[in-house]
TrEMBL record:
Coiled coil: none annotated. It comes from Serinicoccus chungangensis. The gene is nuoN. NDH-1 is composed of 14 different subunits. Subunits NuoA, H, J, K, L, M, N constitute the membrane sector of the complex. It is a multi-pass membrane protein. This is NADH-quinone oxidoreductase subunit N. Its EC number is 7.1.1.-. Residues 155-451 form the NADH:quinone oxidoreductase/Mrp antiporter transmembrane domain.
């Protein structure tokens, strides 16, 4: 043994308490699935999951700032960025879970099949429906994914970052395949997400190995120190940074790693799509900020131009392909790709303004996205979701409040003044211009103008379209849970557009990384 002794690392469990609460809540949810009767599972799982997230949020607010630091042998960093993004993930997850819990008067959440393992339309699936089987396993799956997201933004080590990546991803692969309607499309989405996610994880691992070979360590601080001292080893450093970036860019749906996004967004249960679109982007961009700003900032001349090109391609491709879509969920999917490019514009700035503007944009996008997909889930035709643009004709006359809410959210996506979308885009473009990336901001403004076209097409269809063209379209009556999620999302979208200063100041004050 060479006389060496194992020294246990010091772990600040108070700093990790919010994550511990979420993971424990997920494990309790798994236990409930195993022992509670079918009739009681929903009544137990919904309050258990919401209470878990609220308790974790309280622990984060009350204890987080007093326990900032690097812990667990340097693998976890709890700093202002970590706390802000973890809090954002928790708040968005609460709204997402409320939308997932919508039953429309039924016995279980409306969006999910009673038997996810059965062949669509099979006798087994019919029997599961007949006996009243439930799919309340979506709650522990969601909690586990949320715990992975919280760990993802706090990871200060390449190995832990990969573990967190898999923890947040694996439940999403399952959730994407549990749609109650369009089962084959949902299962196809799940398979595509899983296969492409596996490829991206392989790229990430290959890059992590190269960075380990370069620095002799997987800690971000050690990699940063090696970059400042090692000379002549760019053959390991540059490919390592780029391959790790591939794994992270896949999770945010940036071009050219975006192929999964429209198919998964369309096929997954709509509430899951909203949760995934909002929360995964927050987690993935949080991890990307830490890797690029803490671990490999010294190699900025190598990766900055590449990320800038990816940002420009994401904005252009997302905008151009959005305008030829005829399905509302696919429009929002390509919009998501364009928004990934907008957020990357802030990341490229590589200063405090870049970090704060990126975090602010993540908040604005999250609070726009969850209510938008919640509204999509309400519009029905022949017992299923009416996602074709033509099916939304005259929606403003059938349900003016729902149409008005969706119109406002689309205006926010487009970046119209007095919405959070305008403020977020102004913040990231300003950060980019201040660091000499004015051409990227110009591309962003032009892409925003292009995406606005398809948003206005949908708005015109809702308010001026002939209701006779969508005679079978109705709007389901939501429960208080979906109504609350939509109301909160719209209110925050308006507030961040009219009075953004408090949140911008908060983002500015928490934009420093511990190294």
């Amino acid at each position: 043994m060479g006389g060496s002794m194992f020294v246990a690392p010091e772990i600040n469990y108070t700093a990790l308490l919010p994550m511990i609460i979420v993971f424990v809540g997920g494990l309790v949810g798994v236990t409930v699935e195993g022992f509670a009767s079918r009739r009681t599972r929903y009544a137990v799982q919904v309050p258990l999951s919401i209470a878990t997230l609220v308790l974790a949020l309280l622990a984060l607010v009350l204890l987080g700032q007093d326990n900032e630091g690097i812990t667990a042998a340097g693998t976890v960093a709890v700093d202002g960025v970590t706390l802000a993004l973890q809090g954002l993930v928790l708040v968005l997850s609460i709204l997402g879970l409320l939308v997932m819990s919508e039953r429309f008067g039924g016995e279980q959440p409306d969006a999910f099949t009673q038997s996810g393992v059965s062949t669509p339309g099979s006798a087994e699936e019919t029997l599961a429906t007949k006996v009243g089987a439930t799919t309340t396993e979506v709650y522990p799956l969601t909690l586990m994914s949320v715990g992975g997201m919280m760990l993802f933004v706090a990871a200060n080590d390449l190995i832990l970052l990969f573990v967190a990546l898999e923890i947040l991803s694996l439940p999403l692969y399952v959730l994407a395949g549990l749609a109650r309607r369009r089962r084959l499309l949902s299962q196809e989405a799940s398979l595509k997400y899983f296969l492409l996610g596996s490829f991206s994880s392989a790229f990430y691992l290959f890059g992590a190995v190269l960075l380990y070979g370069y620095a002799g360590s997987t800690r971000f601080s050690d990699i940063a120190a090696a970059i400042s001292s090692n000379v002549g080893m760019d053959g390991l450093l540059v490919p390592g940074v780029l391959l790790v970036s591939v794994g992270l860019l896949f999770k945010v749906g940036a071009v050219p790693f975006h192929a999964w996004t429209p198919d998964v967004y369309q096929g997954a249960p709509t509430p899951v799509t909203g949760f995934m679109a909002a929360c995964t982007k927050v987690a993935a961009f949080g991890a990307m900020l830490r890797v690029l700003y803490v671990a490999v900032e010294g190699a900025r001349l190598e990766w900055q131009p590449v990320i800038a090109v990816v940002a420009a391609l994401s904005m252009v491709v997302g905008a151009l392909l959005a305008i030829v879509q005829t399905d509302v969920k696919r429009i929002l999917a390509y919009s998501s790709i364009a928004h990934a490019g907008f957020i990357l514009t802030g990341v490229v700035a590589l200063d405090v303004a870049g970090v704060s503007s990126t975090m602010f944009y993540l908040a604005t996008y999250g609070f726009m996205t969850i209510p938008a997909f919640a509204i999509v889930a309400l519009v029905r035709s022949s017992g299923t979701e009416a996602t074709l643009v033509d099916q939304w004709a005259g929606l403003g006359r059938r349900s003016p409040w729902i149409a008005a809410s969706f119109t406002f959210l689309l205006m926010a996506f487009a970046g119209i003044p007095l919405t959070s979308g305008f403020t977020g885009k102004f913040a990231v473009f300003s950060a980019a211009v201040s660091q000499g990336w004015a051409w990227l901001a110009v591309v962003g403004v032009l892409a925003s103008a292009v995406t606005a076209y398809i948003y206005f097409v949908l708005v015109v269809q809702m308010w001026l379209g002939d209701p006779g063209d969508a005679a079978g379209t109705v709007v389901a009556r939501p429960s208080w849970m979906t109504s609350f999620a939509i109301l909160v999302g719209v209110a925050i979208t308006l507030a961040l557009g009219v009075m953004p200063s408090p949140v911008l100041d908060l983002a500015q004050s928490t934009a420093a990384f511990l190294r």
